[in-house]
Amino acid sequence: MQWFFRKEGADAMVIGKNLVNPFFYRMQKMQNDYRTSQITLKDVNSSVQSWIGHAKHADTYKLREKIFAGIVFANRAQESGRS
Q1: Which of these, 26, 18, 11, 23, lies nearest to 53 by C-alpha position?
Q2: Are strands 13-15 and 3-5 parallel, antiparallel or unpaired?
Q3: What is the dihedral of CA 19, 25, 31, 37, to 10 degrees?
Q4: d(CA 42, CA 45)
Q5: Cβ distance 65 to 21 under 8 Å?
Q6: pTM, to two decimals
Q7: Cβ partners under 8 Å of residue 83, min gap 6
Q8: How far apart are CA 32 and CA 75, in angstroms?
Q9: What is the pLDDT of residues 74-83, one digit of tens each?
Q10: Is residue 57 part of a domain?
C-alpha cells in the first residue's frame, strides 16, 4: 500500500495509482462475474466496503465518486426481467 502526502506540511493524504488501478480492474472483473452469476452481490459488497475502508484514510471522496459513478451490477436474470 502506498500513501502520499498531497503537499509539504499538508495533513491530507492521497492514495497512489498502485491502489486505484488494481481495484478498478477488479471492479470490472466483479461486474462480469456477477453478470454471469459466478459471485453474489454479498461478495461484491464485501470487497467494495473493504476497499472504501482503506481509501477513507486518505482524501478520496471525489476519487470514490468517480470510480463508482459508472459501475452498475446486474446479473443476466435481472437483465432479462426474471428474478
Answers
A1: 23
A2: antiparallel
A3: -100
A4: 5
A5: no
A6: 0.67
A7: 77
A8: 9
A9: 887 655 555 4
A10: yes
* 15 within 8 A of 58, measured Cβ to Cβ: yes
Residue 64 sits in which domain range?
Answer: 20-79
Domains contained in the chain, number: 1
Q: Is residue 60 part of a domain?
A: yes
DSSP string, 43-56: HHHHHHHHHHHHHT
- Taking only the tens place, the pLDDT of each residue in 17-67 is 777 788 888 888 999 999 999 999 999 999 999 988 888 888 788 888 888
* Assigned domain for 65 exists: yes
Q: Report which of 66, 74, 67 is spatially closest to residue 27, judged by C-alpha positions.
A: 67
Q: Distance between CA atoms of 79 and 14, rounded to whole angstroms?
A: 37
In a domain, 2, yes or no: no
